[in-house]
Write a structure and sequence with these properties.
alpha/beta, Rossmann fold, 3-stranded parallel sheet, globular, GTP binding, NOG1_Rossman_fold_dom, P-loop_NTPase, Nucleolar GTP-binding protein 1 Rossman-fold domain-containing protein
Length: 126
């Protein structure tokens, strides 16, 4: 995505991630209800994942109860179809409506924060 196309919140987020020792909880909304297409989300995700590859990272697919069931036979090399169906590999699927994945998300965020605190404590300036 062209940096000029980003809104102020997106630019501010990138600045914060660039300068603070943060862990990243990246939320994907593939339901079609967030105003950004899954295709655009995948492009942005890949860019952010590459830019902040040294950060601790946790992917979450929100509104998973709204994702349409896709045919089971998606070609292995069809990255966009796989992403649109279930998000990145290892993502936690969460639905507030059905409470699916909420406990796992809480536990994983807790673990992520502990890991990040340990990372910060082990750096010379930490």
């Amino acid at each position: 995505m062209n940096p000029d196309e980003r809104n102020n919140i997106e630019r501010l987020t990138i600045s914060v991630l660039s300068y603070l020792p943060t862990a990243v909880l990246y939320v994907h909304d593939l339901s079609g209800e967030c105003g950004t297409s899954p295709n655009n989300q995948l492009v942005t995700y890949k860019e952010m994942r590459e830019r902040f590859k040294d950060h601790l990272w946790l992917d979450v697919v929100s509104k998973c109860d709204l994702l349409q069931e896709s045919p089971a036979c998606i070609l292995p090399d069809d990255e966009f179809a796989r992403y649109k169906r279930c998000g990145p590999d290892g993502a936690i699927h969460v639905s507030i409506m059905s409470n699916q994945g909420v406990d796992e998300l809480k536990a994983r965020v807790h673990d992520l924060l502990l890991s990040q605190m340990a990372r910060i404590s082990s750096t010379p300036s930490g």
